[in-house]
Specification:
The protein has about 250 residues and is mostly helical. It has helices spanning about 1-10, 25, 40-50, 65-75, 80-95, 95-100, 105-110, 120-135, 145, 155-165, 175-185, 195-205, 210-220. The relative contact order is 0.11. It binds iron/sulfur cluster.
């Protein structure tokens, strides 16, 4: 009888998870850290990232947190290079939140057309600027909660503004590169950016959150590219066991 009960309790394997690595192990309980998020391995990854990218920063040109907010809204589904081509003239024409808040939407649409999704981006820019002028005394708010009340601002944008605009580590920026590399480096097995961010916040020291996301973004652009990662040039290769590896 006892033998029968033991058989019923046996767990079924979970789809998409490697055999032998449980969810509990993945998050590294004391004395039982999983393979990908083992603290020693994570530290080695951080050291390698520091060697390769010692002082990387946000690639979006900006002179203040408000400009960074606008540039980040524009960067959705668009390259930073393209955004940097558009923003100098845009910021000259609209120098502050008030200028954007009461601008003619058609004029802004024309200015930002080449960044794609220009109608929605214009709505977000005008909506966020109005709220900043009317509810935050013309200043970009400095908390995650307040930033998330601005139209067009989700966690990724808020983390960019807080981290690169104010130097506040409230979370980890999870863009397409961070999402892909977190999977390849087995730092998270989630696909939802919010869950990936929570996973990364558990294993990366808070004083590294801002730099770490910049480093992964740069590594994703230069080496660990989506279609064909350049593993032969990657200094993380000895620590990486991704199925996408090309060496
Ligand atoms: S070894 Fe290849 S897949 Fe792994 S992190 Fe480096 S470039 Fe990416």
């Amino acid at each position: 009888m006892a033998q029968k009960r033991k058989k019923t309790a046996k767990k079924k394997p979970v789809a998409g998870r490697k055999p032998g690595i449980s969810r509990t192990m993945k998050h590294g309980p004391p004395g039982g850290a999983g393979r990908g998020t083992d603290p020693v391995r994570v530290r080695k990854i951080l050291v390698k990232l520091d060697e390769a990218y010692p002082a990387v920063t946000c690639a979006l040109s900006h002179a203040n947190p408000f400009q960074l907010l606008i540039a980040t809204i524009l960067s959705a589904q668009c390259t930073d290079e393209r955004v940097n081509m558009v923003t100098p003239h845009l910021f000259e024409k609209y120098p502050d939140p008030k200028a954007f808040a009461y601008a003619n939407p058609k004029d802004i649409e024309n200015e930002i057309r080449s960044t794609g999704f220009f109608r929605n981006k214009t709505k977000s820019i005008i909506g966020a600027s109005k709220k900043i002028v009317e509810e935050f005394h013309g200043e970009v708010p400095k908390t995650m909660e307040e930033l998330l009340t601005l139209p067009g601002v989700a966690r990724k944008t808020a983390n960019v503004v807080l981290g690169s605009g104010f130097g506040i580590a409230a979370g980890v920026v999870v863009d397409t590169h961070v999402q892909r590399l977190s999977g390849r480096l087995d730092l998270s097995r989630n696909t939802d950016p919010k869950k990936i961010e929570q996973d990364l916040m558990q294993i990366i020291p808070q004083d590294r959150w801002i730099l770490f996301s910049h480093q992964l973004i740069w590594h994703g652009r230069r080496i660990c590219q989506a279609r064909k990662p350049r593993c032969i040039e990657c200094n993380l290769e000895p620590l990486c066991y991704s199925k996408d590896k090309t060496v």
